[in-house]
Amino acid sequence: MAEPAIEDHYSEDRTFPPPDGFVADALVRDRSLYEEADADPEAFWARQARELLTWRSDFDTTLEWDLPFAKWFVGGTLNVAENCVDRHVEAGRGDKVAIHWEGEPGDTRTITYADLLDEVCRFANVLKGLGVEKGDRVAIYMPMIPELPVAMLACARLGAAHSVIFGGFSPDSITDRVNDAEAKVVVTADAGYRRGVASMLKPNVDLALASTPSVEHVVVVNRCDTEVHMEEGRDHWWHRLMADASPDCPAEPMDSEQLLYLLYTSGTTAKPKGIMHTTGGYLTQVAFTHKYVFDLHPDTDVYWCAADVGWVTGHSYIVYGPLANGATQVMYEGTPDTPGRDRLWSIVEKYGVTQLYTAPTAIRTFMKWGVEEPEKHDLSSLRLLGTVGEPINPEAWMWYHRHIGGERCPIVDTWWQTETGAMMITSLPGVVTTKPGSATFPLPGIGVEVVDDAGNPVERGGGYLTLTRPWPSMLRGIWGDPERYRDTYWSRFDGRYFAGDGAKIDDDGYFWLLGRVDDVMNISGHRISTTEVESALVAHESVAEAAVVGATDPTTGQAIIAYVILRGNVEPTPEHGELLRQHVAQQIGPIARPKTVILVPDLPKTRSGKIMRRLLRDVAEGRDLGDTTTLADPHVFDEINARAADAPSGED
Ligand code: PRX
User: Fold this and answer.
1) Residue 4 predicted with pLDDT over 50
2) CB 3.0-4.6 Å disulfide test: which of 245, 438, 505, 621 passes with 125?
3) Any keyword Ligase (predicted)?
4) Is 261 part of a structural domain of the chain?
């Protein structure tokens, strides 16, 4: 079937009410949760905490707030692993599948909640045997295999904090993170499968550990049967330790504010920040959002978050949220184009996936690959779709809605951050009418305001996105640096958390995320969002993907530079750049016309799929590229540099 012409341009008026077929069985069909939370947000969260989680001892104070330091559910004790695993088994659901795991080569494992309990207890005992105690840190550098959530839950069971380091990071990045956290143990694997080959991990750990004095032991899963160096006394095979470990490991109750994990994220400086998340508040909000935003029916749903556990999305919506809720989920090891570009759709069909959660950049890649790929498979099991990570352009939203959701699935566009721990702005799918490209409204219990430069709330129009009150899954700080925590998030606007994002509120009160504020350009004194220009470019029938940056310009302050990937079947003419410049001028206005359009074969992306705008700005401004080790393909730049040098600039 030919792809329909894209007639759905950016429009605040295009609305999609919750589909009738969906609403009929939705968990939430009215506004009562919003009303309850508006009336008393703390009481609302206290009720969720008690309803969704199993506490060993109840809390006496819902919130202690000494800006910017919050404590939630003070005096309460619970164990995260017990909430994610034991209680489901105790309730008679031990045979329920927790994880349908699919390896990239096609090997599979079916892990029930009883299996998970056995493995988590054994590995907790392994960690204990290696000297890990409550309060210690454990670094985890692993592929997407079941041992990864097992290792995380084993840490949680003991009250040791994990620091998961994404498998795409370089040895230097591992060293920095391990040293900052002073991790005692590293858990890794020989390798993991990516694009049909064993992508090595253990050699990176070996290089990294040359200068990490805190590390005493390394545990290595044998995933790919490759030859790796095992250092006598330090390195141990996972399967050997597990074979000797007892499956008996009682879960100790932890304080609600016990550190659960650190997750490092880049800020504006070179040094990554160890974002701290704790126990009771974090688990409450991830469980709440996972249940109500994805409308989880745990007995019948097969949920799938196609992210990597190395990022916060995987922590909250592969490990803690779904398991706390007793969900059955799919976990996939590899890339979406192996062995073919229909791999995701074949997995949806095979397991009867009901909810799919992925990123706009992935959706645009699927668009580029063409509708033939999803059309090879029966996707009728899907009943809800989600997106996360960046603003979704309306064209990608419409494509997802039509070609993946069959026009029957609500789309939840979820805005949140590593720092927020869980979703903050998105829709309850049985209640909220969506608009393609808008994350819609703050969730119940969440306070959001858009403010102007001076910090005054803006009722309608654009400004800075701020959070007005503490929320249960908020970061508790930056590891080892409370001042940096205060400065980074709480100093720009008095009494508010500043998220770093620009946003606008439309005439109907919908929130539209405009990207990071440093991605919002200022052209001759006009604020223009890179997202808006990208959206216009992607709306052109010849464009597959676009990234726009504001480069310093002596006349206009900043100038718009657009990097564009054309669709596979388009032969560019010398005038193609000019054509696209005019197209943008037509879509948004002459002020948004890019100065330069650079046609490129690919875009520089982090392994998590985020476009690296900083690098694109550097190319546009002719600067040194610096560290590009987190690029999916470091060679992308050679080509981009060559084309940038050739591209003609517009005269006006
Ligand atoms: O700019 C926002 C964007 O991603 C940033 C957070 O990135 P990170 O901490 O890596 O977490 C990503 C996964 C939660 C935000 O400051 N962002 C995330 N989700 C959206 C988004 N921008 C627009 N719409 C979203 N749905």
Assistant:
1) no
2) 245
3) yes
4) no
At position 33, the amino acid (one-letter code) is L
| Cβ(192)–Cβ(224) below 8 Å | yes
Partners of 504 in the beta sheet?
462, 512
Between CA 404 and CA 380 the distance in angstroms is 9
- Is 591:528 a contact under the CB 8 Å cutoff? yes
Provide the mean pLDDT of the chain: 92
Number of structural domains the chain divides into: 2
pTM of the model: 0.85
Query: What are residue 463's phi and psi, to 5 degrees?
Result: 170, -150
- 515 and 616 share one domain: no
In the numeric block, the tokens 């969730």 are attached to: 443
Residue 527: beta bridge partners?
522
Which residue's CA lies nearest to atom 11 of ligand 1? Answer: 417
Residue 473 · residue 285 · CB < 8 Å: yes
Q: Which atom of ligand 1 is nearest to the CA of 392?
A: 24
Confirm whether 233 is domain-assigned: no
User: Which residue range forms the structural domain that includes residue 495?
Assistant: 446-520
State the closest ligand 1 atom to the C-alpha of 413, by its place in the atom list counted from 1.
26
Contact between 49 and 453 under an 8 Å Cβ cutoff? The reply is no
Residue 170: exposed, middle, or buried by beta-carbon count in 10 A (0-12, 13-18, 19+)? Answer: middle
Same domain for 574 and 588: yes
Q: Clarify whether residues 471 and 581 are in a common domain.
A: no
Distances (CA, A) of 234 to 187, 230, 364, 637: 12, 8, 44, 39
Q: Is the peptide bond preceding residue 143 cis, with omega within 30 degrees of 0?
A: no
The pocket around ligand 1, CB under 6 angstroms, is made up of 265, 312-313, 388-391, 413-418, 439, 499-501, 513, 515-516
Q: Helices (DSSP H) in 370-451: which residue ranges? A: 372-375, 394-399
What is the C-alpha separation between 365 and 380, in angstroms, rounded? 21
Measured in Å, residue 276 CA sits from the centre of ligand 1 at 18
Q: What is the pLDDT of residue 8?
A: 38
Same domain, 573 and 619: yes
Q: Which of 338, 172, 165 is nearest to 264 (CA)?
A: 165
Tell me the binding residues for CoA: 194-197, 313, 524
The gap from C-alpha 612 to its chain's centroid, in whole angstroms, comes to 16
Q: Domain end: 469, 503, 520, which one? A: 520
In 10-70, alpha helices (H): 20-23, 32-39, 41-52
- Residue nearest atom 4 of ligand 1, based on CA coordinates: 389
Tokens linked to 244: 């000797």
- Name the residue with the closest Cα to ligand 1, atom 14: 417
Is residue 19 domain-resident?
A: no
Nearest CA to ligand 1 atom 21: 390
Over the stretch 470-509, which tens digit does the pLDDT of each residue have? Answer: 999 999 999 999 999 999 899 999 999 998 889 999 999 9
Of 489, 520, 551, which one is at a domain's C-terminal end? Answer: 520
CA distances from 96 to 300, 326, 327 (A): 11, 9, 9
Evaluate whether residue 383 is within a structural domain.
no
Q: How many CB atoms lie within 10 A of CB 513?
A: 22
- Whether 523 and 578 have beta carbons less than 8 Å apart is answered as no
